[in-house]
């Protein structure tokens, strides 16, 4: 898989973002309504990555900087968003590769911790993050009062 920095609103990114939103609808009944501005994923305060196989986008993920306010975010946080691998490419380590590159680039940009929100109906995501060293933190963001929400973090 070839991992490329790509604008959040690039047509290939939009295609995978739409697909992950449909996955949320399938699992939860609704898309993720967390406010997202494509500019938040532009360097140096963010980054969006696509993974390609034979020039076909198969994986995505991004981070955006947060510097407070506490207790939701700490100075130096990077929030992961839109991690996704298309069905036909799952189980091949692509999500782990994107995650590692997101962590590497966030650390290189001076971010000190990665945070994320996922849900109980995404056991594959939870297993990936926990196996990569992420631990539970207090809930934050749009879904902080939802019982199915899980928030995780990892120090970089």
Would you kindly provide a written description of the structure presented here, covering whatever features stand out?
The protein is of the alpha+beta class and about 160 residues long. It has a single domain (about 1-155), classed as Gcn5-related N-acetyltransferase (GNAT) (Aminopeptidase, 3-Layer(aba) Sandwich). It contains three helices and seven strands. A seven-stranded mixed β-sheet has the order 1-2-3-4-5-7-6, sandwiched between helices.
What are the defining features of this structure?
156 residues, alpha+beta, Aminopeptidase, 7 strands, globular
Concise overview:
27% of the residues lie in helices and 31% in strands.
* Name given to the CATH homologous superfamily: Gcn5-related N-acetyltransferase (GNAT)
Major sheet = 7 strands, mixed
Assigned CATH architecture:
3-Layer(aba) Sandwich
Molecular shape: globular
In angstroms, what is the radius of gyration?
A: 14 Å
- CATH class reads Alpha Beta
Task: Provide the helix percentage.
Answer: 25-40%
Structural class: alpha+beta
Blueprint of the fold:
Elements: E1 2-5, H1 11-28, E2 46-53, E3 56-66, E4 77-85, H2 94-108, E5 113-119, H3 123-131, E6 135-136, E7 149-155
Parallel strand pairs: 4-5
Antiparallel strand pairs: 1-2, 2-3, 3-4, 5-7, 6-7
